[in-house]
Amino acid sequence: MSAVERIDEIDVRILELLQEHGRMKRNRIAEEVGLSVPSVSERMRKLEERGVITGYHAVLDHKRLHFDITAFIRVIVDGSEYYPEFIRRACALDEVLEVHSITGEGSHILKVRTRNTTTLERLLSRIQSWPGVHGTVTSIVLSTFKETRRLPVTPTELVPVEEFETS
């Protein structure tokens, strides 16, 4: 039995700072949380090893890069025997930013970004041709008022990895 993994107030502050400023230098983080740089580095290493921090990413302005269309595509896949291949194909597409298994209408929802309606139409045609795909329903985003990956973090016990791993 492994010891209960926790994040404390200092870990929370480090996570908040990194979510707000992913490129913040460790000496600045150390100043903010009142620890030495080696202590902050060790905490960050542990947060990475425990899977709390899963990566560091630049946030790009999709419109500046000519990806003008954001859409959500609900996909109806006929049966669970088709799910693994559907997920593999969807995850392999560069335009697909997110793939989720859902309840309600459809079996999966995809968040996609494409250059224009022509490229969206091509993408939809491709997805609709996959084995087991019964249909799609697409909603094009007109305006976005909030889009973030930032989470509100509090001191807590970490959920054991085995509780959320999928087979």
Helix segment tally: 5
Helical content band: 25-40%
Give the strand content. Answer: 15-25%
Mean pLDDT over the residues? 93
User: What's the β-strand tally?
Assistant: 6
- Main sheet makeup: 4 strands, antiparallel
User: How would you spell out the order of helices and strands?
Assistant: EHHHEHEEHEE
**What spatial order of strands do you see in the largest sheet?**
3-4-2-5
The radius of gyration over CA amounts to: 20 Å
The unreliable regions are: none
Gap from first CA to last CA: 22 Å
Written account of the structure:
The chain has 167 residues and is of the alpha+beta class. Helix 2 (26-33) crosses helix 3. The model has no long low-confidence stretch (mean pLDDT 93). It has helices at 9-20, 26-33, 37-49, 83-92, 117-128, and strands at residues 6-7, 69-77, 96-101, 108-114, 133-140, 156-157. A hairpin with a 6-residue loop joins strand 3 and strand 4 (108-114). The strands form two sheets. It has a four-stranded antiparallel β-sheet with strand order 3-4-2-5, covered by helices on one side. It is built from five helices and six strands, in the order E-H-H-H-E-H-E-E-H-E-E. Helix content is 33%, strand content 20%.
